Amino acid sequence: MRTLIFLVFILGPLYAIDEYPIWFLYPNRFPGIIVGYSYNGLSAKTDAENMYCAYRSCVVNGTLEIFEDSDQDQWLKNSDYYYYYSPDSLLKIQGKLVGIDSFMTNVLTGDYIGAYSFNKEDSLPNEWLKVASLSAPEWAFKTFWEEEQFVYGVGMFSAKRNENDAWKTAEEQAIFTILTNMAVSYHRIKILNQDESGRQAAYQEISF
Q: Parallel, antiparallel, or unpaired for β 188-194 and 200-207?
């Protein structure tokens, strides 16, 4: 049976806005909707097209560096990786997504989050939920799990500056949580161990 992947994301403790539309917080209730984020000059529609293709089938290749200790778990800035998916798959859907709804996340930069669909007849409820009134979901303290035919990954990042960047970072963390818990080929692993003072204690490089 083909494994379907559904990603869930949570935002860190600093919220840029205090309420969101229900379709954004509970996307599983609206299966025909594709969410896109405007960032780095790209429109939300372009992001929705790209991620739709990536979710269906893609190869991720590159370097992912992670620094871990008892207090931290974060990606280093010099990680370098790319998504590869068939250009034909993108050409087949370009221009076919229809904007159903959107909301502004940053008035100064003009960033927004949009909901798109292939069916122009789709509609979404005009219902907004205040984040402070919501209880933490049971998966908030999980990172990866499988349920029926779905695989779930959770990403988290604090919205200290640009909220859309935070959501995209959380999205990528969720994707890599799934990838590193499933079928991933490692070509080389570098392990740097440090003692309690922060000095390098051991270094190991493993090639496959």
A: antiparallel
Statement: the pTM of the whole predicted model exceeds 0.85: no
- What are the φ and ψ backbone dihedral angles of 78, each rounded to 5 degrees? -90, 15
Cα 55 to Cα 175: distance, rounded to the nearest angstrom: 9
**Structure tokens that stand for 45 in this block:** 């529609």
Give me the tens of pLDDT residue by residue for the chain, a chain 208 residues long: 344 444 445 444 434 578 999 999 998 899 899 999 999 889 999 999 999 998 888 777 776 666 655 444 444 445 667 778 888 889 999 999 999 999 999 888 899 999 999 999 999 999 999 988 888 888 878 888 888 777 888 887 776 668 888 888 888 888 877 777 775 555 566 666 655 555 555 656 655 5
Euclidean distance between CA atoms 123 and 132, whole angstroms:
26
CB 25: neighbour CB atoms within 10 A? 15
What is the C-alpha to C-alpha distance for residues 97 and 115, in angstroms, rounded to an integer? 10
